[in-house]
Design brief:
The protein is about 30% helix and about 30% strand. It is an alpha+beta fold.
Amino acid sequence: MLIHPWDAPGDDTEWQEWLAAHDFGQLAVNGTAGEPPWVQPLHFAYDPAHREAVTHLARPNPIWSALLDSPTVLLSVVDDYTFIPGPWQAGEDQPPEHGVPTSFYAAVQLRCTAHVVDDPEAKAALLQRQLAHFQPDGGSAPVAAEAAPYGRQLPGIRGLRLEVLDVRAKFKYGGKRSEAVQHRISARLAERDGPGDAAARRHQQRRLTAAGGSAPTASRSHGTR
């Protein structure tokens, strides 16, 4: 993933706060010789205190042989994306038709060492950590290796601890454009108000302000949901 200076996070807090609100991504694992990479969509729980993400997959999943052969993996999370038409991006000295279309998005990639968890007690503890993240209000029975309802289901899954080795993050929201052009893009996003536009606009405004610019303001007709 190419990260230009104007797309890089201002500090670790920026990507950490974003990742705390995003717990679904894709796990990329090197394929065996002659095979393409495996890419597995999954929910995960990221634990910043231990610099690891925990998850689990069904035991019959074909990814396991590749993962055991090459345990260095990439957990990729992308969201808050939208398409920016070319005319919105045109420089102040350019005709609108000369603007270049682009994508706005946030992305965090965690390079990890994968540790397979097969011990029943360890798997139960891992699943309990996931439940605590996804169901903080409870409502499900505790996960225990020898107790119903989950004990008898544990052999059908394998747990994964993803030990984070490195983090790459990108917030691509027009940071290299002039403040005037960014204001224009912000206004157009508010007008269009399509899927992803409000989130992208919030990122753009936040990063523009952090860079020392003035946050774009919307008129009543430019309100966002």
